[in-house]
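Why should sequence recovery work at all? Because a backbone constrains its sequence more than one might expect. Tight turns favour small or flexible residues, buried strands favour hydrophobic ones, and helices have their own preferences. The token representation captures these environments compactly. In the example below, the structure is given first.
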């Protein structure tokens, strides 16, 4: 049985009005997790109890007492020290993570007290989160020492004069409130529960319901456990039908092709196929640096072929150059279709080996993403389990983990064959399956006309990479180190104490104990000092703002300034970032190794890092093309707001224009503060920013922020109407759609939890706007790439960050290429507002601002 807190005050609030007054609001992420726990408990047929006016601990105490009185052995699964008061000969606490049982003997051994003394210890040490007073400057150690010596709180109080020093003074000053503290810490074991202990007998899980939840959460080990126990197979995660195409007949047939004779026979069969799945095995994860080890192919379910071109010493394998030369006509034939899983990787690997993979028809990872962008993982192993009910061989089983990990060329070729051919086979089967699922015309068009053509664009970008100025980064590292030293000195000076700024625990002590700021939220390890907390506190004291700057600078130095030079590929002299197509739920691209989206463009430090991205050739330049306020323009397009559209059509400063309208003043009277508020609201609208968020962001009272938001919507009523329509439609359909029909499920809108529903409203509006902007820039990238290929232009698209594209090109062709880029970016879609593309060029990325 599981006990949970009920909403609302408890009997302890009647006893002490300030009980739990210091507890911060429940984090926004927690209610959805509680709801999910309840769903899992229901599927496991484990009862969940709540009683209004009482806490979960009181329910546990009542159940414990009832069960132990009937002679049952009780285990309390918790680490909560408050529950130690319930331990007796029939009751123990159990930590399932550490597999440790704490009974009467263990409590005595660990803390030197009996269960009946626990409440006295709790009363003395108090609880800052629950706001139980206790005794000032008395923690668990001192409380245990006192109770061990005097036996009880009552006896300690009688002998309070014996306690010397400051703590003795604090004890004597707290005598009146100690009885209250003890009452607050004592569990009520008489909660009115209308239950029968027989209701808590172990029941058979509802396996299908539990399975569906675990699949959605990608709890693979739990899913396997449930499937094995219940004797059922995974049913698939999507709402659509499960696999209906024929699977393999009998055991898989995976063939090792490691001789010229075997290869000749394989090649004849491959040449007869008009579509097949392909996968490569390599020595590493970076496709530009990794070496080809082997290739696998499949065109029938349950069948696969593996062609090793590298192998451990003494193992037979094919000659790499000869094999690729013979495969090249098929691999480069655009009329023979290829299926892959993250096939962009294979395209780069093969191109580095001298083969341009053409006819790329279907990527199973991309198809999975288009069908369900909210999935936590689109990896082959997960897709195989969820959609085919197939447990794949894991790479770690072959190459190991950690410092002793092998490269794939050291794996025995027969083992490599079983693994690699299976990958090709599963890719083939998933490709056939997902093709049957792409029945919605909008999604089919999005997949075939946007996402699949984009694969080739991204492969080209990753292959090209970008040059870096390592000397500049070394100078920057020295400068950042000096600034970090200065910030450290300032922080220590403002805190009036030297401490480790990188230690959250020490920082919390400084902020909440020494300086006396009010904590915002608590974690398992203490009061939080994360960015959100520091952003909230920065208006109240200099230290939080300085720590924010310190952390930002430290992150930039460690993540970019010091790391980027080591990421330069030895073969190309360039950095080759990965552009990820199936990560964000909105449809935006993300990048990694390096993550370019985390370089702040509005800070001086972030701009200095951009200066390191340079043109490699002396007569080349870097060009950056950036959509101007594209999300606000899309908001004007979707909402149809006449005033907003007019402002864009007239080329107005949109933030100054909005400030003038909301404040009902002429444009030339708008000051910097008023424009700043308007800008914050303009962008905040897209992200569903609350009055509290706006107040924290620009440092004004919540009331003033709410008044500005109200005035904004009063002036731009069509925007509010549009947002409401998006939310209502999402609630009715369960998903939202972008301008090209990309879908994102918004299950939060169906939640009974108000906070979760509010989150769903923000996600719905943001996805329509941000996702449509992503659709636009993807189309623009495809069109530009097609022009480059068709006209054989010496123009390289090398980076994409949010609404910005970065190119490298000859300086003497700057004018015609600027016109080409601007034209293709302005017209991928027809909008009801003008699209503006800001373009600038220079010797490095910074000069393009």
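From this structural description, the recovered sequence reads:
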């Amino acid at each position: 049985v599981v006990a949970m807190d009920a909403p609302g005050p408890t009997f302890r609030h009647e006893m002490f009005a300030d009980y739990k007054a210091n507890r911060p609001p429940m984090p926004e992420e927690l209610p959805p997790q509680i709801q999910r726990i309840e769903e899992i408990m229901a599927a496991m047929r484990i009862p969940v109890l709540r009683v209004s006016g009482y806490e979960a601990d009181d329910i546990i105490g009542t159940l414990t007492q009832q069960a132990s009185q009937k002679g049952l052995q009780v285990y309390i699964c918790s680490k909560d020290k408050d529950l130690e008061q319930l331990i007796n000969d029939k009751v123990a606490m159990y930590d399932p993570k550490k597999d440790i049982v704490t009974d009467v003997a263990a409590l005595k051994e660990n803390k030197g007290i009996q269960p009946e003394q626990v409440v006295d210890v709790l009363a003395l040490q108090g609880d800052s989160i629950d706001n139980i007073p206790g005794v000032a400057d008395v923690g668990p150690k001192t409380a245990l020492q006192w109770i061990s010596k005097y036996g009880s709180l009552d006896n300690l109080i009688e002998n309070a004069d014996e306690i010397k020093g400051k703590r003795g003074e604090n004890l004597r000053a707290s005598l009146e409130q100690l009885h209250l503290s003890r009452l607050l810490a004592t569990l009520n074991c008489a909660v009115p529960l209308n239950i029968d202990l027989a209701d808590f007998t172990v029941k058979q899980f509802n396996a299908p319901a539990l399975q569906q939840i675990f699949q959605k959460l990608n709890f693979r080990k739990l899913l396997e456990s449930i499937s094995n126990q219940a004797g059922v197979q995974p049913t698939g995660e999507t709402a659509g039908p499960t696999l209906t195409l024929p699977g393999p007949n009998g055991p898989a047939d995976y063939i090792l092709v490691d001789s010229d004779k075997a290869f000749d026979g394989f090649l004849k069969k491959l040449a007869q196929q008009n579509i097949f799945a392909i996968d490569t095995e390599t020595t590493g994860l970076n496709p530009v640096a990794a070496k080809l080890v082997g290739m696998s192919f499949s065109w029938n379910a349950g069948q696969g072929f593996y062609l090793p071109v590298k192998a451990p010493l003494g193992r037979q394998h094919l000659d790499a150059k000869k094999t690729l030369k013979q495969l090249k006509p098929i691999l480069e034939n655009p009329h023979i279709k290829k299926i892959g899983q993250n096939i962009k990787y294979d395209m780069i690997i093969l191109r580095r080996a001298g083969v341009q993979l053409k006819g790329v028809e279907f990527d199973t990872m991309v198809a999975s993403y288009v069908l369900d962008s909210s999935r936590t993982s689109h990896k082959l192993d997960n897709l195989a389990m969820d959609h085919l009910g197939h447990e794949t061989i894991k790479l770690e089983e072959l190459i190991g983990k950690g410092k002793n990990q092998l490269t794939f060329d050291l794996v025995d070729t027969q083992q490599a064959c079983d693994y690699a051919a299976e990958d090709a086979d599963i890719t083939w089967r998933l490709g056939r399956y997902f093709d049957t699922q792409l029945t919605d015309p909008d999604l089919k068009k999005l997949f075939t006309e946007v996402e699949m053509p984009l694969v080739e664009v991204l492969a080209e970008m990753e292959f090209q990479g970008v040059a870096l100025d390592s000397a500049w980064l070394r100078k920057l590292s020295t400068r950042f180190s000096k600034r970090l030293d200065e910030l450290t000195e300032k922080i220590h000076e403002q805190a009036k104490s030297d401490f480790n700024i990188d230690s959250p625990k020490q920082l919390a002590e400084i902020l909440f104990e020494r300086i006396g700021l009010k904590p915002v939220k608590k974690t398992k390890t203490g009061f939080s000092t994360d960015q959100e907390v520091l952003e909230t506190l920065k208006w109240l004291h200099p230290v939080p703002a300085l720590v924010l700057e310190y952390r930002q600078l430290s992150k930039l130095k460690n993540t970019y300034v010091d790391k980027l030079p080591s990421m330069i590929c030895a073969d190309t002299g360039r950095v080759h970032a990965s552009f990820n197509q199936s990560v964000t739920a909105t449809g935006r691209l993300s990048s990694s190794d390096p993550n370019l989206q985390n370089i702040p463009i509005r800070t001086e430090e972030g701009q200095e890092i951009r200066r390191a991205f340079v043109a490699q050739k002396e007569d080349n330049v870097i060009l950056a093309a950036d959509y101007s306020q594209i999300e606000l323009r899309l908001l004007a397009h979707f909402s149809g707001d006449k005033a907003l559209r007019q402002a864009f059509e007239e080329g107005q400063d949109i933030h100054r224009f909005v400030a003038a309208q909301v404040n009902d003043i002429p444009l030339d009277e708008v000051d910097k503060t008023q424009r700043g508020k308007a800008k914050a609201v303009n962008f905040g609208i897209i992200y569903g920013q609350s009055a509290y968020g706006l107040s924290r962001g620009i440092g004004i009272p919540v009331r003033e922020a709410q008044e500005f938001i109200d005035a904004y919507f009063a002036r731009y009523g069509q925007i509010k109407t549009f947002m409401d329509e998006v939310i209502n439609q999402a609630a009715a359909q369960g998903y939202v759609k972008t301008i090209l029909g990309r879908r994102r499920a918004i299950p939060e809108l169906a939640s009974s939890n108000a906070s979760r529903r509010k989150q769903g409203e923000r996600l719905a509006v943001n996805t329509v706007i941000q996702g449509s902007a992503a659709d636009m820039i993807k189309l623009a990238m495809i069109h530009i790439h097609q022009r480059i290929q068709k006209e054989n232009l010496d123009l390289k698209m090398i980076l994409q960050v949010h609404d910005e594209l970065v190119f490298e090109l000859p300086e003497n062709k700057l004018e015609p290429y600027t016109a080409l880029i601007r034209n293709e970016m302005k017209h991928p879609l027809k909008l009801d507002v003008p699209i503006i593309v800001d373009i600038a060029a220079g010797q490095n990325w910074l000069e393009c601002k």
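A few observations help interpret the result. Residues 341 and 365 are 5 Å apart (CA to CA).
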